[in-house]
Design brief:
10 helices, alpha/beta, 6-stranded mixed sheet, Purple Acid Phosphatase, chain A, domain 2, elongated, 14 strands, single chain
Length: 422
């Protein structure tokens, strides 16, 4: 822990030194005035006090262990750090570009033997742009921490299939994922999302993993709240990578296994039927579909607990299947080319909690790691839907990627054709 804090301090000090000299150069024409000294000394004192606060807070909280509230305290600290230093890092990038520009200009620019000005006339335009964008980034992070993380949306998607059983036309699914209950410090935020879910009047709720950050205790205060949601065809759930308890140091394998059983028991008390490499068949209007669920399966370093062949047992003859698999990598690597599964529902990416989704355009830095990170994707007449998450982890904020309850309506392709003909 000491090494991580030391790295943080050194990194922050480098950012502050660069920003200090950039600020000094920008206000050099104020030299000799009282404002000049106040601005520079104020920046130094504020930065030192801020870093001292972070360091002392880290040591005061200590190693979280099995205490999810301590983890939450670290997330809040990380949010405060991002609020102050994300704008500063943003400014540093523009400062470096500005310095490179003036360096090139000095080397290759035309010299003047008649220049008498003691202070070069520099506009610092690039740095000024960086300063403006730093202020904007501060506002965005602040918004994401206070409002963005609970700005829930029920996003509607209709998916058309050639082979959808007639009895399931118009079948309405609510997909939720990555709740991360231990991250919420305000119970009202969770209840706000659950109220929106309840208001959708769906046929079924499908949860695609990561109810917690690490341990089952995070669920205790919310069991009755989830249990109140009772769609006609029930609620189904799988386990995500965080539900598996892989991010804690367990004294032995038995303790980890017992915690996993508690996790499953609490979700059952919430009203979910757990699909742990298992399946269930749903009947509606004389037709049937199979709901399959696998434990977490991801690309390394994520572990591969999921066993799809086991989950398929007994439903080979059911023509229409929906798979719950936490990580979208599973669909891309094992499902889209090899299995007769019409719809796969995943989560895991969170949309990185930072990005843009507006007016048909969507982008997030997470797209470089997970090209299928948010929304509906089609491959070989099979669909993958990735939910960007209900909750958050790490940074206690969402900026541009809203917490989402995905409402997926199943329709036969013939309906789409008839609508287009009309």
């Amino acid at each position: 822990m000491f090494e991580k804090i030391a790295i943080l301090v050194v990194f922050s000090a480098i950012i502050d030194v660069i920003n200090y000299y950039a600020l000094k150069s920008m206000i050099r024409r104020l030299r000799g005035s009282g404002a000049y000294g106040i601005i520079l000394k104020g920046y130094i004192i504020f930065s030192i006090l801020l870093m001292a606060y972070f360091v002392l807070s880290f040591f005061y909280i200590g190693y979280p262990g099995y205490d999810y509230e301590k983890y939450r305290s670290f997330f809040i600290l990380f949010g405060l750090y991002a609020l102050i230093y994300f704008p500063r890092i943003n400014f540093v990038l523009f400062v470096i570009i500005q310095w490179i520009y003036y360096g090139i200009k000095k080397v290759f620019g035309s010299a003047s033997n008649f220049r008498v000005s003691r202070i070069p006339k520099r506009s610092f335009l690039v740095q000024k742009i960086g300063l403006v964008l730093s202020v904007v980034s501060f506002i965005l992070v602040l918004y994401g921490m206070i409002w963005g993380k609970s700005d829930f949306i029920a996003r509607q998607t209709t998916v058309y299939f050639d082979d959808l059983p007639k009895g399931f036309e118009g079948f309405k699914i609510a997909q939720i994922s990555d709740v991360h209950l231990g991250s919420f410090s305000d119970r009202k935020d969770v209840l706000k999302g659950l109220k929106l879910l309840e208001d959708q009047n769906v046929d079924i709720v499908l949860f695609t993993g990561d109810m917690v950050n690490n341990i089952a205790d995070e669920m205790e205060n919310y069991i009755s709240d989830f249990a109140k949601i009772n769609p006609k065809y029930g609620k189904y759930a799988i386990l995500g990578n965080h539900d598996m308890g892989d991010y804690l140091k367990w004294k032995n394998a038995d303790l980890k296994y017992k915690e996993l059983l508690r996790m499953e028991d609490f979700e059952r008390q919430m009203g979910f039927k757990m699909l742990l490499n298992q399946n269930d068949i749903i009947y509606r209007k004389g037709d049937s579909i199979a709901i399959l669920g696998v434990e977490n399966w991801g690309k390394p370093p994520f572990k591969q607990y999921g066993d799809l062949s086991k989950a398929m047992q007994g439903v080979e003859d059911v023509e229409f299947k929906i798979l719950l698999s936490h990580d979208p990598s599973h669909f891309m690597l094992k499902v889209k080319d090899d299995e007769l599964i019409q719809l796969t529902l995943s989560g895991h990416t969170h949309g990185m909690q930072i990005g843009i989704r507006c007016c048909g355009f969507k982008w997030s830095p997470i797209s470089f790691i997970y090209p299928q990170w948010n929304g509906l994707y089609k491959y070989n007449n099979k669909y993958l839907h990735v939910n960007p998450g209900f909750g958050f982890i790490g940074l206690p904020a969402r900026i541009g990627i809203r917490p989402e309850i995905s409402i997926i309506t199943l329709q036969n392709s013939k309906n789409k054709e008839s609508m287009s003909n009309e």
